[in-house]
Write the structure tokens for this entry.
Amino acid sequence: MTVASTSRPATPAALYQQVKDFVARKIADGSWKPGDRVPSEQELVAEFGIARMTVNRALRELAGQGKIVRVAGVGSFVAEEKPQSTLLQIANIADEIRQRGHNHRCMLLSLARVAAPLDVASALDLRTGESVFAVSCVHFEDEVAVQLEDRYVNPRMAPDFIRQDFTRLLPSEYLVKHVPFDQIEHVVDAILPTAEQAELLQMPATQPCLMLTRRTWAAGTPVTLVRCLHPGTRYRLGSRFRPDGTAPRG
């Protein structure tokens, strides 16, 4: 790919910012599409007449913002657009995927009644070792793994949960329909996956993930503890809301 007219801004800007703005514009206006190679550091040095260190800073910051992906020894490429999931409500991942025009598939890994570990018991206000329902599954978007879901359910609040066929109905769909909640807590952490999690998500164990931990309550009683693990290079989490904390409509 050759560097075309840069259309540099009339107002002087930091040299590295000029490079960032140029690359970002090409991506934003569709000139460079996801997967396209970005001009090399050497090409950008020649085009802008600046130091390689300055160009390197611009590309590093663009990579940090998720606009490009840098592959050692190969080059830089326009990043694939990441789907975004809301944090303001319990989103149906299947609906989100289908709204993007893609196919959703859920692979059920396990469904069982288990003794609650200490962290799960604490989150659900149960005694350690008390019985809870546990379900694990992997969600795919066009056969690409985008979420590993581990869900714990308070049996007192959803006694029939364990008897459902979750190859036909998602656990979240069943709970939203049968156990209306009135409070949600969301916490997001950046973590490295275990070797097992990385294998299930079809990703290197050295790449970071976003862990969304969700708790729900109904009339003050905990209903669920859910941990959703997303490959950081394939997914993002975000929200839009008014100053009063309510979600906008439309």
Summary: The first helix runs from residue 15 to 28. The chain has two domains: 15-78, 84-238.
